[in-house]
Write a structure and sequence with these properties.
This protein has a domain at 2-122: 3-Layer(aba) Sandwich (Aminopeptidase), CATH 3.40.630. The protein is built from 6 helices and 8 strands. It has helices at 17-24, 27-30, 41-50, 54-57, 104-118, 134-142, and strands at residues 2-3, 7-11, 60-66, 71-82, 87-94, 124-130, 146-151, 164-170. It has an 8-stranded mixed beta sheet, with helices on both faces. A hairpin with a 3-residue loop joins β1 (2-3) and β2. The chain is globular, with a radius of gyration of 15 Å.
């Protein structure tokens, strides 16, 4: 578990299936992800199983936990690992509106970036953000990410967006 001031990041567990099912199947969240249909419980379980070992599967999913009440409030995903280039992609979701704009996502990203640099020894992190997701654009800029590309053709948001911003953060201490 990675501890911060307001939140902690822990690996996803089978007990998280109902909450992830709720978040992944909320059409309001589909606007900022590549999701275009509901997931089944079985698919969520497969997702959890495949996101346990970054070295084996190239991805890792953390649950963001509010330290004050110990409730799961979102997910942070590390994926598209390139061990040669020492790069990785990040995605984040704070599941419900009442937990947004409280600094949880910013702290989660910063904790994850420290983990990527200090533990995984990566030196750059990428994210793709839809042009209409102003909150995420501000969040990632605040966390030090810089815009490197704007594209209409994007491998992540195939059907949901006209434009996508690719951003990068160089990790260093």
């Amino acid at each position: 578990m990675i501890q911060g001031e307001k939140i902690a990041l822990r690996l996803v567990r089978i007990i998280d299936v109902p909450k992830i099912f709720e978040w992944e199947n909320n059409p309001e969240n589909w606007e900022v992800s590549e999701t275009v249909r509901d997931y089944t419980f079985e698919e969520i379980i497969l997702l959890i199983d495949s996101a346990e070992d970054i070295f084996e599967n190239g991805q890792l999913r953390f649950i963001i936990v509010n330290r004050k009440n110990h409730q799961a409030i979102g997910t942070l995903d590390l994926f598209q690992v390139d061990f040669i280039e020492k790069s990785i992609h990040v995605g984040i979701l704070i599941g419900s509106i009442e937990n947004r704009r409280k600094g949880f996502a910013e702290e989660a990203i910063k904790l994850a970036m420290d983990y990527c640099f200090e533990i995984l020894m990566f030196n750059k992190v990428y994210c793709h953000i839809q042009s209409n997701n102003v909150s995420s654009l501000k969040l990632f800029k605040k966390c030090g990410f810089e815009l490197i590309n704007e594209d209409k053709e994007n491998p992540i948001f195939e059907s949901n967006s006209e434009r996508v911003f690719k951003m990068k953060l160089w990790l260093k201490k």
